[in-house]
Amino acid sequence: MNRISRVEYATFYLSRSLVAVGLGLVFVALAALWAALIVGGTPGGLTIVVAAAFGAYLALNIGANDVANNMGPAVGANALPMLGALVIAAVCETAGALIAGSDVVSTIASGIVAPSSFSDGSVFVLAMLAALLSSALWINLATWIGAPVSTTHAIVGGVMGVGAAAAGLGAVEWGTMSRIAASWVISPIMGGGLAALALWVINRLIIERDDKVAAARTWVPVLIGVMAWAFGTYIALKGLNNLFPVTLGTAALIGLAVGGLSWLAARPYVRRQAAHLDNRNRSLKVMFQLPLVLSAALLSFAHGANDVSNAIGPLAAIVQTMSGAQQGGALDIPLWVMVIGALGISVGLMLFGPRLIRMVGDQITKLNAMRAYCVALSAAITVIAASWLGLPVSSTHIAVGGIFGVGFLREAIEARRMASGPGEDTPPHLAHEERRRRKLVRRSHFMTILAAWIITVPATALLSALVFRALRLV
User: Fold this and answer.
1) What's the CA gap between 474 and 455, in Å, rounded?
2) In angstroms, rounded to a whole number, what is the distance separating the alpha carbons of residues 190 and 186?
3) Which of 43, 162, 377, 454 counts the highest number of beta carbons within 10 A?
4) pLDDT tens across 318-346, in order?
5) Which residues are CB-contacts of 120 (< 8 A; sequence separation ≥ 6)?
């Protein structure tokens, strides 16, 4: 009977994974069907349908792999259950993609390889198809083995590789590539630095105070207001700007008003939370749950705005080319293309995201609500700034960099404490062993993630070139 029960459990586990795969295939088929209904019998309609299927497949994989960076800290800190994280992420990712995703889409679609570099529009279309498929395959493989790779790396590498294979190295916009490559180095440093700074400020203002609860009662509403200010400014720049011109100063004032109102609304909420709490660090996590959830939602919104470009940038370029628009002209992104990318990310997250969410939230370093808030806030601000500039940075680099930032800061604080803590009778080798044991960032994950970051661009570039050659033979 025990063996039979094990077989039944294994069958159930396998069938559950197959159900997710089947639902993913259904979504890809529906995306292709929707594209067929829209383009109808227009010239090149079949190519657009195939491109829509490839774009939907890539969007599914982005949702499965990349969104873990947004919700992992909140789930790891036990501020959100898995189902709640999935629902919030799906809603915010979709909203960010539809409201604020067009700027970075233009960068992916025409800023890396100029369409005018191709003498034949059909060659450019094949190149974009190859970039979509190769990037999706690579991210699918990474998700299957449990590696949080950068989906931005994947699509940029794919577009660059196929552009060089199809039209030569001169077709690649190396100026844009240098800006993007620089952002890949700067963004994890910014994410880690901002997260470490936020944690240091929280330590000084709240954790190291004699009356921690009273300090949190004062400063947690301020932290909520800071998030609301960033979110309000970003919405004004990206959402309202589609209706009427909004300058940066006006957007900042709108964000300031939103932040002030949020601060006022948060004060009675935090006061009620703190009413019956003990004066210890563990009690503080209760008051940090709300700002952590809000920061995770903000990060998902920003991620949707930034990373929807990875799924539909090449698709938008294909639609524009097949519709007969002049290559190199202003990119017109149809709403149905944006919807495929937005829904694909959300569906991929719901079907395949929990595995990597747990890995990011639990296995790199130990997160509580305060540390996870710092990670999410720093990542959100960095991604928002990048999306506002139209720069496709890697949200994986930013979020994971933030996790490493808070982890290494904790190591530095712990090392300083250990340096003054061991007594005179403690043997030196035991003190050294204690410091080694208390390393709070897992070095194996650090090296694995670094290796994945390094290999993704050349791997997808090579795969994309090979897929392009294969498509030309078909």
Assistant:
1) 29
2) 6
3) 162
4) 888 887 655 555 556 788 888 888 888 88
5) none
